Amino acid sequence: xxxxxxxxxxxxxxxxxxxxxxxxxxxxxxxxxxxxxxxxxxxxxxxxxxxxxxxxxxxxxxxxxxxxxxxxxxxxxxxxxxxxxxxxxxxxxxxxxxxxxxxxxxxxxxxxxxxxxxxxxxxxxxxxxxxxxx
Length: 134
Fold this sequence. Notes:
The protein is built from six helices and two strands; from the N terminus they run ααααββαα. The chain is an all-alpha fold. It has a two-stranded antiparallel ribbon. Strand 1 and strand 2 form a beta hairpin. About 12% of the residues have low confidence.
């Protein structure tokens, strides 16, 4: 009889573990989904959607793949200056990356002088590709 209760207890613990794992996986999926929506909004330059997703808890500095693609990089690459500025105001890390893979590098490469000036005025630190300051 004692072994029977031990087995039942073991099965209940296993069931609870699986249930908790499933809930965590669902939460992880939802987090990834909201982050992908933020990437799309940054790509499109949709500032109201960026603000809505940020308020809903999207990760402003989410990185996709080993190329460190971030919402702010997508917005800069697509010349969406309003989206870049909105992401900065919401707290996105605009210092991330190294030249030419930085917000400033993308803006300079695409001739966005206004955005470059704005970034410098906000204190953007220029760095060499090896990470040393200029």
